[in-house]
Structures are given as C-alpha cells and as structure tokens.
C-alpha cells in the first residue's frame, strides 16, 4: 500500500526589526511592528506546486499596503520600510511589486541580508531558482549565522532533490538554535525520505512544539507512524491535522488510509472523496478511492 506523499514546503518572509532611530518616528516604528505580523511562519504543505506560498490576503491587504506606502512616502530613504512593504506584497502574492521593494531596500542598504533572503523567497516563488540561490548565498555571505537563509536555501536544495545539501542547511539552522519550526519540519521530511522514521518523528514533534497550530507536521509525523506500523498514533495525528485545518486534502486522504487499513471501507471512501473535493488533482486520494471501490 502506497503512503500518501508528504512534500511540505514551508516558507517565510522576515522583517528586520526597527532600529533605535525609528523611536523618533512613532508612525514608522508602528508600521514596522505591523510588518512583523506579516511573517509567513509555520509549516505548509503544497502537493501540487511547491513553488507557491500560501496567501493570506488579510495580512497582505490593500489597507495595510496603503499604510506602508504612506510610511515610505514620508521616509523614502529608509530600506527597512521597503522591506516591510515588500513582505506585505509577498503575502498578497504580488511578487513583482515585492521584488521592486526588496531591490530598493538592497540598493539603499547593500548589507541588508534580511532583504536578500526575502527577495530570494520571491524569486523561488516566481520559479527563478538560480536567482533565489544567489540571494540566499548573498544573505549568508553577509551574515553566516542567519538561520532563515539556511532554511530558505535548504528548501531550494530539497526541491532540486539535492537532499544532502538540503539536510546540511537545515542542520546548520538547527545548530544555530533556531526556533523556526520549518528547519525541523523539513529535516524531518528528509529523514522520512531516507526511511529513518524514528528521527523523522522526533523532528516533526519538535516542529509541533514550536508551532502547535500547524497541521502539516502532524501529517508528517502520522505518515512516519504508519511506516512504523503504529496506526493508532497515526490516526490521532491525522485527526488533529483535520481539526487544525480541515481544508488540506492530504489530511483527509491520510485519515482515509487508516480507515482503509482497518477495513472500514465506507469511511475510507468518504474521506478519500472529501479529499478529492478539496483537491481533484490529489493523486494519493484518487488512487486510494480506486482501491477502496475495487474492494467493495
């Protein structure tokens, strides 16, 4: 029986904290604090197009962007303001505008390593992997302890199936004591690909402790539990993933897999069908539904 594929891609924009000089400009300081709320934190699964980020329009809203544009109009020489607005554009999926803002931030401050990493993420989401790699490398040349850039570059390597290089980057971020769950989640995926499910479970568990409201590490850990024959813990994880985010096709397909293994064909068929309603192209659900129907 083929396990549902787990190919999570978790990405995030980071906002460089306001320098002390911004305390003299309360409006800018407030907008930079707002920008920190635009982080793409946590874990995300994307089974059809790993190069796309989850868009949360409310946090990349026209209203927020308009406010940030007002800040830039008052502070046209401030690279941090461009970085914040670029992150907001990234959240809204307006990648070309995001690129323009990160370009301007870097032009104003060539040592702005956070802006390089943010621009690298946009390049990756636009499908320009070489430009993304160059930006992540530039960020790390400027700051060799920047965990976000290691995680971003690791995702590039993982997408290119360069698993050893990806593993090294995620390891480096973890060695830097990152609290970013993406490092553990993505390293867990590599352990999983290597059939080292005990280590995968450990990493997914750490990701869960760092981001308990994210469904994806529960799915990841559940799949490794299935591989170990621990269907009870797997079922618990898949149900938790559904409770946290009922719109992920893979969570329903994973739940269906346990029903299928238990011989509960009607429940398996219902969950596989629901997964396909959420994502008609999700192949593990399509294959699972075909298996269950063939057994009926």
TrEMBL record:
Record's keyword terms, sorted: Repeat, TPR repeat, Transferase
Record Gene3D superfamilies: Tetratricopeptide repeat domain
Gene Ontology biological process terms in this record: receptor-mediated virion attachment to host cell
Presence of keyword Protein biosynthesis: no
The protein's name in its UniProt record: GlcNAc transferase
Organism: Sinorhizobium glycinis
A GO term from the CC aspect: cell outer membrane
UniProt repeat feature TPR, residue ranges: 79-112, 113-146, 147-180, 181-214, 215-248, 249-282
One annotated GO molecular function: transferase activity
Coiled-coil ranges from the UniProt annotation: none
InterPro entries the record matches: TPR-like_helical_dom_sf, TPR_2, TPR_rpt, Ycf3
Keyword Lipid metabolism: no
Domain of life, source organism: Bacteria
